[in-house]
Amino acid sequence: MTERCDLLITNANAATMDPSIPGGYGAIEDVAIAVTGGRIVWIGPRNELPDCAADDVVDGEGCWITPGLVDCHTHLVYGGHRASEFARRLGGESYEEVARAGGGILSTVRATRAASAEDLYRAAEPRLQALLSEGVTTVEIKSGYGLELDTELKQLRTARRLAQHYPVDIVTTCLAAHALPPEYDGRADEYIDLVCEEILPAVAKEQLADAVDMFCESIAFSVDQCQRVINCAKELELPVKAHAEQLSQSGATAMAANAGALSVDHVEYINNMDVAAMAENGTVAVLLPGAFYTLKETRVPPVESLRASGVCMALSTDLNPGSCPIASLRLMMNMGCNLFGLTPAEALAGVTRSAARALGLCCSRGVLRAGLRADMVLWPMDTPDQLAYEFGALKPAKIYFGGRNVTAG
Ligand code: NIG
Ligand code: FE
């Protein structure tokens, strides 16, 4: 390492989440972390730190340091809200019934089409700020409330614009195959033609999406239609992911995994063949306990079988106006443990290392290691188990984005 560094943090412990360090958290107690040019240049036990002078020496005051959190599945750019549907669901209507009656995703499509780019940006800001205040430093944002070229572009441009103004990396995903727009009622295959021939090529041309997503479900698109979207994404050299097996079993997870999907998300209804396909292809299972909780689902993802097969499990908010209007990744850690049976260490891996992998960023984010970008959060806690256990009072003491202190307030 260089003899002079920009930032040196000592008197702290690190949950590095580096799988090469034994123990679920890859813990290094009494750690020293040196940062130069926005990257970690040295990390290890303080008593092994080479001679090093730093411009900024930070006393970690006994905090635990984790990687910046990664929220790998959100729909946080949208118009309007769906509070009235919440009341209808409380009255006994199901998510599918509301969707089939023209509400659900289509209700947000109407509001998003009607919103100006400025409206969308202003509405997204507090959602993003809520995530950032919890130590999130990378966020994925999907389109999918446009379902027509101009509005899909408007959503994706808004997502990119957020990244210019906030200390966060934003990864964008085109989810044009989210629902059938009303003008294509009864003509789903023709809408998939539009997605493949017009929307995805235009999005790719403007480099507005880092990946392509789709919703494979009886209220959305069939496995064959999703396969067409995947083929098109591949031609455009864009990685794919899928919303699948959320409400029923369709075989979409195995299809997407066998096509090399980065992740399949929701996965409550996957079977052994789906799990085997994910394991074989290194596809991440993104668990979304907030949607499960909000929709009062009862079928939990087969965590034991995913674990036994070595499938990486990420956790995310799914932040959206319908199935999860909850802007808290920390709460998802708690729900992942309480509702799905993850361990606290799996929950932290799910919002760091595994979430980065779900975005195709496994070698650059989600782990504290020399050479990687210094996205780090200092937490005033005695053990990293507290991150999944406690909610509300435990907040980041300091947040670093690329080595820069971006702690709010
Ligand atoms: O991930 N499953 C599909 N899409 C979202 C919900 C979108 C909505 O209800 O607006 C999800 O749960
Ligand atoms: Fe989603």
Automatic annotation (TrEMBL):
Pathway: Amino-acid degradation; L-histidine degradation into L-glutamate; N-formimidoyl-L-glutamate from L-histidine: step 3/3. Its EC number is 3.5.2.7. It catalyses: 4-imidazolone-5-propanoate + H2O = N-formimidoyl-L-glutamate. 4-imidazolone-5-propanoate binds at R82, Y145, H178, Q246, S323. It is found in: Cytoplasm. Its main location: cytoplasm. It comes from the Bacteria. Binds 1 zinc or iron ion per subunit. Its cofactor is Zn(2+); Fe(3+). Residues 64-403 form the Amidohydrolase-related domain. Catalyzes the hydrolytic cleavage of the carbon-nitrogen bond in imidazolone-5-propanoate to yield N-formimidoyl-L-glutamate. It is the third step in the universal histidine degradation pathway. PANTHER family: IMIDAZOLONEPROPIONASE (PTHR42752), IMIDAZOLONEPROPIONASE-RELATED (PTHR42752:SF1). Belongs to the metallo-dependent hydrolases superfamily. HutI family. This is Imidazolonepropionase. It comes from Microbulbifer flavimaris. The gene is hutI.
